[in-house]
Amino acid sequence: MAALDLLGRRGALRIVWELREARVLTFRALQAAAELPPGTLNTRLAELRAADIVAVDGGYRLSSRGADLIIALWPLLRWSEDWASALET
Amino acid sequence: MAALDLLGRRGALRIVWELREARVLTFRALQAAAELPPGTLNTRLAELRAADIVAVDGGYRLSSRGADLIIALWPLLRWSEDWASALET
DNA sequence: AGAGGCGCTTCATTTTCTGTAGCATCGCCG
DNA sequence: CGGCGATGCTACAGAAAATGAAGCGCCTCT
Predict the structure, then answer these.
(1) Domain B2-88: which CATH class?
(2) Domain range list for chain A
(3) Which pLDDT tens digit goes with each residue over B61-77?
(4) Which of A8, B1, B48, B51 has the largest CB neighbor count within 10 A?
């Protein structure tokens, strides 16, 4: 479960999420969107780049593997919406 | 993305994973399976119980919402297998 | 009584995260 | 050219979290 270990680090899933739909964000924009301090963001980005999930190409974007990841994440996101609305009641 | 925040904590996804297929584990068995020290496990279990993902019923098991989560996790697990085998090459 | 399993708790150490500040670089505009 | 704003990213001190080992109190079974 190495992948779960990587994605289970603070902010990792959030970064991937913010780069959904082929978004290209600058370091600072990503920092604002993911609500992470620069040090953490930079550490996380290094790991995600090493894992070939995030690519740098005129800003940060998902690699093709990262795009697959977003697709695989869809059911989880659906679940989290249901979960959030269920908790409100 | 409160759910992602919760699941993005160390060991959280791993705990859910170890409870897949309606498994019922004792605290110590879960500790061994998830490779977590008791303090961390206990903290995480408290969060997961508060989120109604894990239930205590003669041991730790997934709640019905937790079972839904496992299903939603399937594509991600598939992706992580592909990812792991791709990294080996 | 003793042995073993149980769910935790405690504690000291190490690791990680946070938040602010700021550096060096680049492109743009007058 | 000289400044201006934005960029990616580093530095640092303090806070928070995780780690690993030890062990407590409780229960059950022999």
Answers:
(1) mainly alpha
(2) 2-88
(3) 999 999 999 999 999 98
(4) B48
